[in-house]
Amino acid sequence: MIRDPEHETMPRPELEKLQLERLKVKVREVYDRVPFYRRAFKEKGVTPDDIQTLADLTKLPFTSKLDFRDNYPYGLMAVPLEQAVRIHSSSGTTGKPIIVPYTQGDVDTWAEVMARTLATAGTTKDDVLQNAYGYGLFTGGLGFHDGAERLGALVIPTSSGNTKRQILLLQDLGTTVITCTPSYALILHETARDMGIDLRDTRLRLGVLGAEPWSEQMREDIEERLGIMAINVYGLTEVIGPGVSVECPHKCGMHIAEDHFLVEAIDPETGEQLPYGEAGELVVTTLTKEAQPVIRFRTRDIISLNPEPCECGRTMVRMSRVTGRSDDMLIVRGVNVFPSQIESVLLDVEGVEPHYLIVVDRQHAFKSDELEIWVEVSEGVFSDEMQKMEGLEKRLRSEMDSVLGIAARIKLVEPRTIERTEGKAKRVIDRSEL
Ligand code: DLL
Fold first, then answer.
1. Please, are residues 188 and 199 in contact by the beta-carbon 8 Å criterion?
2. Residue 366 has what pLDDT?
3. How far is the CA of 134 from the centre of ligand 1 (A)?
């Protein structure tokens, strides 16, 4: 359902006009109120008056995670602290957490954006939505909670973890929509199976899954195991949390809430803006955030943008699945490869479970001659004769080589030996952590 047709199906020229109006206001606001931005603008020799068209965006400086660290905790705020009503946070890459304050206006906007996000994914007010994203500083829990309530769905705020109880509630309360990370969806399936429950026999029909990278193959696995449609949802703490983009049931890219977020794809090396269709780093400028607007935030997420109208009628630009983060790219004998590509190849092979670990030697800064991949094999295969295991190992090695061009050492492990995590899965691990 299109919850907000006025914005979601707005003709592009009108949408761009709205974006420009909002951009001008935000740029002026941060310049006047946030010393960090004023300084950064001055260094680039740009003032708010230079922003006359959307193309002028490229004149503005980028913001990065490091700027959050340097201005920790409140240095990027554009309103007095008394106007903030909530804080969310995520772990930074360099010690200090990322802090994001929200005004009441921000909380309201976000709830509306999330209601729209859930509606786009196919949720209605008649759904029973079990929210298994973690509640707390993480944006997943409260973000989905507020959006689902705004939509009028019945929310079960289980948070993540306590999986047996989740299954019990899911069955007894007639959950129709589950919201959690893709890896937690698999844990739900595994735990249900242990309890003798087939999730395909429950009322569960839809999963709105995100917060971590996952492949198309992983989607197929989840849809099959849980008997649901699995929809991809994307967002990040620095710009709001979940709600930046989401797929509609056509599953052909995530619609960006462009009336709130102005997006670009850039070349991560040069910072140059890329044309539609080319893979690059997603950069987001918030158009409506009050407490802590961000200008040209470099997400590190690699995506491509598609402006073609979608069959669903929405005119908003779609972004592809995140294929990797510019900082988690592995280099194996000079070949660049993202963990998600490895996942795609693994899960295409029969007899393999969607649980794996990529073991790297960080001493060599992600550069190695050979990669080690641990992967769980299915029950049937594991109990079978040695020969089958060897065949599988060989097959995986040759697929890695022929599809990705990398040499990988494959270690087949027993089902359920790789550690499960209830939030975001950790797929790449340093040898020293083993
Ligand atoms: O993960 C917000 C969120 C919550 C999104 C619930 C979706 C659902 P952070 O913890 O700040 O925020 O992590 C943001 O997670 O830059 C991506 O690298 C990654 N990420 C988020 N969604 C996806 C997705 C939340 N659908 C970082 N696919 C982002 C791939 C994703 N990566």
1. yes
2. 53
3. 13
| Pocket lining: 242 vs ligand 1, CB cutoff 6 Å | yes
Stated length of the chain? 434
Q: What's the pLDDT at 94?
A: 60
Rounded average pLDDT per 10-residue block, the chain, 434 residues: 97 98 98 98 98 98 95 98 97 80 98 98 98 97 98 98 97 98 96 98 98 96 98 98 98 98 97 98 98 98 96 98 86 84 94 93 63 91 82 94 90 94 88 76
Cα of 9 vs centre of ligand 1, distance in Å, is: 25
pLDDT of residue 96: 85
- The dihedral through the CA atoms of 170, 156, 321, 420 has a sign that is negative
Buried-exposed string 264-296: b where 16+ CB fall within 10 A, e elsewhere: bbbebeeeeebeeeeebbbbbbbbbbbbbbbbb
- pLDDT the model gives residue 369: 65
Q: Residue 89: is it exposed, middle or buried by C-beta count within 10 angstroms (0-12/13-18/19+)?
A: middle
Q: Is residue 326 in contact with ligand 1, taking CB distance under 6 Å?
A: no
Closest C-alpha to ligand 1, atom 9: 236
Q: Could you tell me if 285 and 296 are in contact, meaning their C-beta atoms sit under 8 angstroms apart?
A: yes
Task: Specify the ligand 1 atom closest to the Cα of 321.
Answer: 28
Tell me the C-alpha distance between 329 and 331, whole Å: 7
* DSSP codes joined into one string, 405-428: ---EEEEEE-TT-SPP-SSS---E
Does residue 423's CB lie within 6 angstroms of at least one atom of ligand 1?
Answer: no
Question: Which SS3 state, helix, strand or coil, does residue 140 take?
Answer: helix
Report how far apart, in Å, the C-alpha atoms of 4 and of each of 113, 114, 126 are. 10, 12, 18
How far, in Å, CA of 274 to CA of 292, rounded? 27
Residue 95 alpha carbon to ligand 1 centre in Å? 19
210 lines ligand 1 (CB under 6 A): yes
Helix/strand/coil for 105: helix
Full set of structural domains in the chain with CATH? 1-323 (3.40.50.12780), 330-433 (3.30.300.30)
- What is the model's pTM? 0.95
